[in-house]
Design goal:
Blueprint lengths: L37 H27 L18 E8 L4 E3 L4 E7 L4 E7 H9 L9 E11 L2 E6 L6 E3 L4 E2 L13 E15 L2 E8 L2 E8 H7 L10 E11 L2 E5 L6 E4 L22 E14 L2 E7 L4 E7 H4 L13 E11 L2 E5 L6 E5 L20 E14 L2 E7 L4 E7 H4 L13 E11 L2 E5 L6 E5 L38 E2 L12 E14 L2 E7 L4 E7 H6 L11 E11 L2 E5 L6 E5 L25 E14 L2 E7 L4 E7 H5 L12 E11 L2 E5 L6 E4 L1
Parallel strand pairs: 4-6, 8-9, 11-13, 17-19, 23-25, 27-28, 30-32, 36-38
Antiparallel strand pairs: 1-3, 1-5, 2-3, 3-4, 5-6, 5-7, 9-10, 9-12, 10-11, 12-13, 12-14, 15-16, 15-18, 16-17, 18-19, 18-20, 21-22, 21-24, 22-23, 24-25, 24-26, 28-29, 28-31, 29-30, 31-32, 31-33, 34-35, 34-37, 35-36, 37-38, 37-39
Length: 703
């Protein structure tokens, strides 16, 4: 088609040469400008302007519009990838991995909690700016929601949009802190009681003031983010600012800043000194202090019992072995010593006791003089069981498999001193114990094969006064007493030295009242088994009488056949004879001293029908009942666990002693909310009804 044949359209023909130019603005033939229609140009530039205005509007909207605030409880699947604003309180110590650059913490806003995460550059920016929120902090944060099925989390994209507010701390006594203060920041001033590490990554500092005790947890996650706090030692006074958290429904403190744990130079009293006669059952579980004179020292398998007397009365201070071994100057805690004990008041068989928690709770004010020195010839069989002191020259030294025996002669007579190995190892001058040295010895008088012996209880009961050459080795002078009329000499010679501990004689239960304080062996049948807070009690019968086989918890744990111990079996037990409130007891010192020799434990009776808790009353104390309900609270005691059980008709306290708890098959499931079926004895304590199971199988967690 020629140019002449093309249809003419305005804006497509050159006005100069008349040739076709199409959409060109300059004619390719003659170079003349070709005018265009204004509408096309307007649309071209209008489109560009509109795009610019649109972008400007988007920028203004993104810069000045408010990000929507959402709550955890309102998050739904359609919010996936939504950019939102959230506020709340941090409920856990954040997790941070410096190698991967990952940071996360949990936020709670009254409707639920959500995990907030930051990665690499954003996480590092939060760390560098000191904006990592810690437990108890209030946080405002913006980020992108990720919703996956029933799980949602928030990702931080702009660190500047993370705002952290740390509330002021309230001064508070430890005893006033409850579960209601969860996540609130408090300030306490207390004494460090102990520092322990339950597992790698967690350090727990036990704190106590005059109102109560609480744990301070220090997690490695906090240390990695904030630094190492001051190292504290038991006995130091500290000031701590920390939020309250809960562990098994019990309040504790969680350190979130190392600078908020400070050692202070302040004396913080933990307990007031109370006259002994003012203590009553109303003071059970109260932390008190008593001071007085030691009138009796009784070592037993799990520790030492001290009878303490002041001007108003007496009380037993029960010092467990783990505590006793850490007591400073414990070798001077003898009869006549002036002491102060502080600890929790407890009740055992209707007698009050005070149990120090830590070695620092036992303070020696003045050492006791101990027993007066007596001539060896004055000692008689009637004094067996008493603590005596003699002074003389070592005439013979004879080691044996369990220790060392000395023959000591004071000129009026000769007596054997039996030093068991654990005592011998603690004698300060044991290397000087040789024939010819002069010694002062204090210990319990006993009789073996018709011969009197002295058995010191501790290493400091043996003092080397003068070496064989006549040179004094110590300035300690034992207390003396006026010379008494000499009795017949007691000569402990020429009898063969046994290579093991004497074999206890086997006696009938009817003979026990005649053998108090002596070690005997009994053979009898178990007629009753009963747990208590510190171990197990078995009632024995052999046809001549009855007695209690008392197994402290540590001894019970060592019994080889403890799984077979039960009503109906026959046992052979060796132990010390004691009397308590009219009952004669045999108390073994080792688990191997208890053997099941025959019979079979009676089969566990079929559980009785559960009784409605609301029907249990104080008049049923001593009866055995079965309950079925849900645990509504739990509390750890020093001797076991305490729970509240509700079945809809009422509530009752469930006490599970440690020995029973450890024997439970499902103890890890015994938590708040679990349904349990329990068979136990009804007791009444401080007006509250309690059910106390006797064995681990008496507590069943219902699935």
């Amino acid at each position: 088609m020629s140019d002449a044949e093309r249809p003419e359209k305005p804006g497509t023909i050159c006005p100069s040469c008349g040739r076709f130019v199409g959409a060109r603005e300059v004619c390719p033939n003659c170079g003349a400008n070709v005018p265009r229609r204004m509408s096309l140009r307007l649309f071209r530039y209008g489109a560009v302007a509109l795009a610019v205005v649109g972008l400007l509007v988007l920028w203004v909207a993104a810069t000045f519009s408010q990000v929507p605030t959402v709550y955890v409880g309102n998050i739904v699947g359609t919010m996936n990838w939504a950019y939102v604003h959230m506020e709340g309180v941090v409920t856990r110590i954040p997790a941070y991995d410096a190698e991967t650059g990952y940071l996360s913490f949990w936020l709670y806003d009254d409707t639920g909690d959500i995990m907030v995460s930051a990665y690499r550059a954003e996480a590092q920016a939060l760390v560098d700016q000191g904006k990592v929120p810690m437990l108890g902090d209030r946080v405002s944060v913006e980020g992108t929601l990720k919703v996956k099925e029933d799980f949602a989390y928030l990702t931080v994209g702009v660190p500047e949009r993370v705002l952290v507010t740390r509330p002021e701390a309230a001064d508070m006594p430890i005893g006033d802190i409850t579960y209601e203060h969860e996540w609130q920041r408090v300030r306490v001033r207390a004494v460090v009681r102990q520092v322990r590490q339950p597992y790698e990554g967690l350090t727990v500092v036990e704190l106590r003031d005059g109102s109560g005790v609480i744990d301070l947890s220090i997690e490695d996650a906090m240390v990695n983010l904030k630094g190492q706090p001051a190292e504290v030692q038991p006995g130091q006074s500290v000031e701590v600012v920390a939020p309250v958290s809960l562990y098994k429904e019990e309040p504790q403190l969680a350190l979130v800043d190392p600078a908020e744990l400070v050692v202070i130079d302040t004396d913080i009293p933990l307990a007031e000194t109370v006259p002994i006669d003012r203590l009553s059952v109303a003071d059970v579980d109260r932390f008190v202090r008593v001071a007085g004179t030691v009138t009796q020292v009784e070592p037993f398998s799990a520790g030492v019992k001290f009878t303490v007397e002041d001007d108003t009365g007496t009380i037993v201070a029960l010092v467990w072995q783990s505590v006793y071994e850490g007591v400073a100057d414990r070798e001077f805690l003898t009869e006549g010593a002036k002491v102060a004990f502080q600890g929790l008041v407890s009740e055992y068989r209707e007698e009050l006791e005070i149990a120090p928690e830590q070695p620092m709770d036992v303070v020696l004010v003045k050492a006791g003089a101990g027993a007066a020195t007596a001539p060896i010839s004055s000692l008689t069989a009637g004094q067996v069981g008493e603590t005596v002191r003699v002074e003389g020259q070592v005439a013979e030294v004879k080691p044996f498999s369990q220790g060392t025996k000395l023959a000591v002669d004071d000129g009026t007579g000769r007596i054997t001193v039996t030093l068991w190995q654990d005592v011998y190892d603690l004698i300060p001058d044991r290397d000087r114990l040789a024939v010819g040295v002069r010694v002062s010895v204090q210990g319990k008088l006993s009789e073996y094969q018709g011969t009197l012996e002295i058995a010191p209880r501790r290493g400091t009961d043996v003092i080397v006064l003068m070496a064989a050459g006549g040179q004094p080795t110590t300035t300690v002078t034992p207390v003396t007493q006026p010379t008494t009329t000499p009795g017949p000499a007691v000569t402990a010679t020429p009898t063969p030295t046994p290579t093991t501990k004497p074999v206890a004689q086997t006696v009938s239960l009817a003979k026990l009242p005649e053998l108090k304080g002596q070690t005997v062996t009994v053979e009898a049948q178990v007629t009753k088994a009963e747990s208590f807070s510190q171990g197990m009690k078995y009632t024995l019968s052999d046809g001549t009488g009855t007695a209690i086989l008392l197994l402290w918890q540590d001894i019970y744990n060592q019994v080889p056949d403890k799984a077979r111990l039960g009503v109906g079996v026959k046992v052979r037990a060796t132990g010390v004879v004691e009397e308590f409130q009219g009952d004669w007891e045999v108390i073994p010192e080792n688990g191997a001293d208890v053997q099941v020799t025959g019979g079979q434990a009676a089969p566990t009776p079929k559980p009785a029908a559960a009784a409605p808790i609301g029907s249990i009353e104080a008049g049923m104390a001593g009866q055995t009942v079965t309950i079925d309900g849900y645990i509504t609270s739990e509390f750890k005691l020093s001797t076991g666990m305490k729970y509240t059980v509700d079945d809809g008709t009422g509530t009752i306290i469930l006490i599970v002693w440690n020995n029973v708890y450890e024997a439970m098959p499902d103890k890890d499931k015994l938590v708040k909310g679990a349904r349990v079926r329990v068979t136990g004895k009804v007791e009444v304590y401080k007006g509250d009804l309690e059910v106390i199971p006797q064995t681990g199988t008496d507590v069943i967690v219902v699935q």
